[in-house]
Amino acid sequence: MKNKIKALKLIGLFALIALAFVACDKDFTSLESDIEGSQNFNTDSAYQFVLTYNKKINPVQTNGLSANLLGVYKDDIYGKTTASVVSQVTLNSYDPDFGTSPELVSVILSIPYFSTLEETVDGVSTYSMTEKDSLYGSEDAPIKLTINRNGYFLRDFDPDNIEEFQKYYSNANSTINFDNYIVETLYETDGSLEKPHFYPSIEEIIINEDTDDEETLTPRFRQELDMPEGYWENLFFEKQDMAELSNENNFQNYFRGLYIKAEAVNDKGSLLLLDFSNAMIELNYTKHQVVNSVVVTDDDGNIVKEEETLQINLSGNILNILESDDPDNTITTAAEGANLVDGDESLYLKGGEGAMAVIDLFGGPDSDNDGFSDAYDDFIDTYKDQRLINEANLVFYVDETATASLSDMQKPSRVIIYDLKNNVPIVDYFLDITNTTTPEESKTFHSTPLDKESEDNGKYKIRLTEHLNNILLRDSTNLQLGLMVTTNINEVFQFTTSDSEDIITSGTVMSPKGTVLHGGNENVPLEKRVQLEIFYTEPKN
After folding, report:
1. What angle do CA 180, 185, 186 make, to 5 degrees?
2. Contact 138, 268 (CB under 8 A)
3. What is the mean pLDDT of residues 287-315?
4. CB atoms within 10 A of CB 49
5. What's CA 491's distance to the chain center, in Å?
6. Residues 211 and 92 in one domain
7. For the segment 150-168, what is each residue's pLDDT rounded down to a tens digit?
8. How many domains are contained in the chain?
9. Torsion sign across C-alpha atoms 228, 232, 235, 239
10. What is the pLDDT of residues 62-78, one digit of tens each?
């Protein structure tokens, strides 16, 4: 939560600055308008080399996300990623009164998917669940799920700095290993008819079908946790009026949470982005109806029972464990061999504990040792007070050979460029007011979505006009940027890596996808090479 608050403050600050920049730019333009009629200006374009190279993203913070991944995702470039979830639990209300003679009916775990309602006909709703909602990988590929009661206590605060929230990272099974803290296994698929392996379904769920109590639910993972008789009763009914159920701290120390472990069944996999904000365990039970301390009976002398539900929310600390199987060490090899002088020929991008491309807009030698590269000095000398930048873009082309094995669904639709000095998107991001509620339609002027139908297998274009104007007009030195994939370009909260070396966006943490782009190295064909393209206006000589 603290990450989100910090990010919102930063976003608000940069938005205000951005508006100030717009005002400044409008003033700048109006000064030129008085002499436009003389037509003493030329418009032209220029292209220049951009230093781009690979960098590995180390284990990333995965608690505090708005949604969590569960399942298995595989592609032929980066191998297999397995995502498991560890979650604290809280009671919907504390000090529950289970009444007289409570009897357990069922215990059901429910975790909704992110799905889209397509239509409702004759009371039957049809949903879709695509990459823009929550489904990655194969729709028909099963995965093994094991739902365990977790015995490891997830702290809220960092014991070394109690003013900071505790951070948990994607490699938690290497540093903590939750397999060693399993208290009981509550449910496990085994591929049998009784306990089939899990695969996602986009069908609505009908409860109490063909009865007066019929209820429909959106698509979700829903499973009864059928434990031996007495298990749940001892955990809850026997603790009535005791400290364990009296408040959140006591309860989280008592019933520490769930460890939902995913494992691959075959060479494919299904991966889901799940809505844990509405996830819960429903403990359904009956109790005797009592009026004025008297148990109520019907006309036949049978005890009248009331139906009750204790809601146990999967909330508090929730973290993703991301375990990668990259047989060729693609990311490590690319990062260790990064060419910091001439740039890399291929740029490897992958979300989560993956990889990004570092972009040094004006990289290269510094002949006069003034602390700025020759390319930067040339840029300032050429443009400041001489040219007005109308538009500036970075265009990244997908490496069609390296990504030939990826399906259209596996190719990331969006990328985001990040100011690595201030750890926020660049100012052009905040100036883009295109749709901000639907991720696929947001910020499309600043960062165009991948065109998967194009002949060259797609490209991403990033507009950074105002970023360059900041460098020219306001002496900004934010020259080093990071290019990352994102599952949601609106998700720009700050998440750190385990070594605190990098900060990446929350949308990048939640993206399982990866791609390969052509870099800026001179060995890359010019038509596919990353270059900074600038469209400008200048006075005629």
Report:
1. 145
2. yes
3. 94
4. 19
5. 7
6. yes
7. 999 999 998 888 889 999 9
8. 2
9. negative
10. 999 999 999 999 999 99
The angle formed by the CA atoms of residues 173, 174 and 180, to the nearest 5 degrees, is 55
Residue 65 lies in a domain: no
Last residue of a domain, one of 297, 322, 347: 322
Q: From start to end of 57-141, where are the E strands? A: 68-75, 79-87, 90-91, 100-112, 116-121, 124-128, 135-137
d(CA 96, CA 240): 7
Residues 6+ apart with CB under 8 A from 330: 77, 78, 79, 348
Same domain, 219 and 353: no
Does residue 72 fall inside a structural domain?
A: no
pLDDT above 70 covers a percentage of the chain that reads: 91
Helix/strand/coil for 356: strand
**Residue 283: in which H helix or E strand, if any?**
strand 280-288
Q: Is the pLDDT of residue 230 over 50?
A: yes
Looking only at the bridges linking them, the beta strands covering 388-397 and 116-121 are: unpaired
Phi-psi category of 34—alpha, beta or left, where left has phi over 0 and alpha has psi -120 to 50? alpha
Inform me whether the pLDDT recorded for 17 exceeds 90: no
Average pLDDT over residues 454-459: 70
Residue 171 is given by DSSP the state T
Dihedral in degrees, nearest 10, Cα atoms 521, 523, 528, 530: 10
Same domain, 314 and 457: no
Q: What is the DSSP string of 435-491?
A: -SSSGGGSSTTTBPPP-TTSTTS-EEEEE-HHHHHHHHHS-----EEEEEEES-TT-
Rounded to whole angstroms, the Cα distance separating 262 from 271 reads 10
Cβ 480 vs Cβ 358: under 8 Å: yes
C-alpha distances in angstroms, 230 versus 184, 348, 357? 14, 53, 55
298/350 same-domain check: no
Are 318 and 363 members of one domain? no
Domain finish residue from 272, 307, 322: 322
Q: Report if residue 134 sits inside a domain.
A: yes
| CB proximity list for 294: less than 8 A, separation 6 or greater | none
Give the pLDDT band of residue 525 (cuts 50, 70, 90): very high
Same domain, 83 and 54: no
DSSP 374-438: HHHHHHHHHHTTT-EEEEEEEEEEB-TTTTTT--GGGS-SEEEEEETTTTEE-HHHHH--S-SSS
pLDDT for position 25 = 41
Q: Looking at the structure, do residues 350 and 315 belong to the same domain, yes or no?
A: no
Asked if 370 and 419 sit in the same domain, the reply is: yes
Which residues constitute the domain of residue 399?
2-60+328-539
74 within domain boundaries? no
> What is the arithmetic mean of pLDDT over 322-340?
91
